[in-house]
Amino acid sequence: MPTAAKAESAAQQARFVFIGTVQKLRAATLDEAPVDDRTAIVRVDEVIDAPEALAQYAGHDITVHAGGRKRLEKGQQAKFYANPWLFGDSIAVESLDHEDVKRTAARETKEPGDPVRQLAERDRQARFGAADLVVSGRVSSVRVPKDEMATRSARARGAPTPVGRISEHEPDWRVADIKVDEVHKGTLQGDTVSVRFPDSQDVLWHDAPKFHPGQEGFFMLHRPDAGMKLKASRAGAPIEDSGDYVAPQAADFQPFSEPGGVRHVIDAPAETAPRPEAGGDVPPRKPRATRARSARRNRSTKRRR
Amino acid sequence: MPTKRTETPAGSRKSSRGRSRPGSKDQVVEGVGQAPAGFVLVNMIPKSLSGETNQDSEPHLTVNAANPAQIIGTAFSPNPGGANKAPVYASQNGGATWQLNAIVPSAPGSSTGTGDITTAFNRNGSALYAGILAAGTGQMLFLRTTSPFGPTLMTTLKSRPNADQPFTHAMTVPSGPDAGKDRVYIGNNDFAAPGGRTETVDTSLNAGIPAPAFASVRIEKRSTLGQDGPQSRPVAHPDGTVYAAFYRWRAATGSFPGNTLVITSADVVVVRDDKGGSLGFTSLVEPPTPAGDGLVGKRVVQGVSFPFMRNGNASTGQQRIGGTISIAVDPKNSSVVYLAWGDAQPGSFLTIHVRRSTDRGVTWSPQDLLTIPNATNAALAIAQVIPVIDPLRGKGRRKKAGGAPIILPPRTVIGLLYQQTRGTGAAQRWVTHLRRSPDGVNWSDLILADTPATTPVKTFDPYLGDYDHLVAVQNVFFGIFSANNTPNIANFPNGVKYQRNANFTTHQLLNVDNHTPVAASIDPFFFRLPI
Known about the structure:
The complex is a heterodimer of chains A (305) and B (531). In chain A, the strands form two sheets. Chain A has a six-stranded mixed sheet with strand order 10-8-7-6-9-11. A five-stranded mixed beta barrel of chain A has the order 1-2-3-5-4. Chain A folds into two domains: 3-109, CATH 2.40.50.120; 126-304, no CATH class. Chain A has 305 residues and is an alpha+beta fold. Chain A contains seven helices and eleven strands. Chain A is elongated, with a radius of gyration of 23 Å. Chain B has a six-stranded mixed sheet, with no helix packed on it. Chain B is 0% helix and 43% strand. Chain B has a domain at 1-53 and 309-384 and 409-531. Chains A and B meet through strand 4, strand 5, helix 4 and helix 5 of A and strand 7 of B.
């Protein structure tokens, strides 16, 4: 794989991106981390993308295990694309790739931003990329699926035994109907779309977006794939009233009140890469699409496809 | 009424009242009580994750019996980096310190790492087995690794949908033609089981080979209301005896979505297999009518009732309630087995009962050995005191002719871990107890934690977990539970050690900079106590 392509791949996979300086080779900041030729103590100079738990690691020494063929050198400053591996008194990360910081700087002259927000932006954009349909609009109604209603009715009638399975991991499906203002990706017949979502607060489901009437924002919608069908089947999901799409991850919904995120992708010219500037605030706004504009955009989207 | 005596073990020390050492390197804070000798309680969140605020609930652990310094714990803990591997908690020094090691298959971005997860070492610690509900798909996976402290992802041995609450137990055959074979038992509630007899123990009689076979043994032999409860709890003895306990659901009213479901009639059933699981758990059969029904599995109690909640609420300390079951076998006598289960009683959302059988589950003590109201997450284990040479033997008046040393008879101590609510409203607390008894009659009570039940507000169900866990290796109890992590020594009356940054004077958690305040959350706590 060419170097640039490899770096791009590592950048997409890495959850912890930072600039660091190699302090000591064949050494670790944790007793529990095995040490070999690819292990080094690296001081984090600047955190670029990070989850909340790692956002404060600038100035800390950590353990890096370098993947790939590139070697580390003492005193070397590099941009590391890494994933956390071991957390103890210190942390150890597996570096998917690293680039000499001078070469990196030549390509990027951006100001550092909030690393947590930067990672969240990436996640939103990744969900945009993975979505089959992205729309902006408003939840017009939320209903219990017909099949679930039938089950509840049976129970209410005092059926001698509960109908369907009972599990603490029951998803408690709902279907939200969304009145669409604009289609940003994919195609849509008409101006409404239905989305199945779990209303459960159980550990397996609490992360999924919960929709309610009047909710407005961007919806990154996915056709139920084999995995989701499997999960739906496992959980006794309705078959005949399952909704057109699902939105299984928290990053699949972005309210209009939230800046950045998918707005960067939507507003970017088609020929530009969808990776935005960190912390580049776009004033929160609701798309001003009218139904006519929506339909026009919809048609143009279809034509492009 | 069971006897309750004050915890005054030999060698106990008097701690200075409330003495804390905020900012000290090891964050060890002594409690106000009289901690038994050797007692250790550790907040398992490592220092490098001092900023985390996850709801790390539903904990479980396993100890390498051949090297008890090696311990693996689990909880609903995400990979702090959000990558596609979930962590286990790993200790290689007997639980004194812990690391998070990301080796469990997961889904990128999962906020809980996995769904339900339990693990078990084999007897010599050469393999770690796990049963999980995978994040993202909900598939039940059976996993294995030979290097739980390394970075390699656990190997998936088997995967299937439509099952719940995998509960893992492992045993290595010590002698005979199958010596050295790993036997793995993963209890689960399998909704794919025919006839609504969903209680299952997935059993591998040789799990150490590259592609082991697992048989889904249906341990429910009676009719049900369409399914059983989620708890299926196997436990094995080295002599080849394996027990499992579960709830047979017979009737229910109310609505699960409406959070009003009540299991109005359930039996607590124990099954047994005398040949390591190869007999399909059919070794324990009730007598024909009228004494029994002639079917496989002993109904220890019949017709119990309890809520099966969708969501915990204020009356239950935010914890969803849905029954609790635990079973433990005497390590020196496989005929002796203890059982704990929960049911609703007047004024108690769940009452834990403990009973005993001394004839391999055929008959049980007619009355409770212990009864605990408003409690859940029962976990039983039985420790044994290693036989020792009487140091006084051969001296003074006790000297007998010949002076041969006499080995004191082995003895056992039963341990029961549980979590109980105390108080109501804003003053409600979750109190975590470890009860111990040499005979099942006299019980000591050691308070491990006494923490607020109203804060933090839960982010999902279950608040503390649908289970916690207790194991015994020789004469030492090892346990794990989840609780509010506010660094207040009053919450840990027998002392505690924090790895994460915390100030016990201001009762404030601190981030990795040891300065920025961090909100309280639910953390897993490990404890170790020799008898």
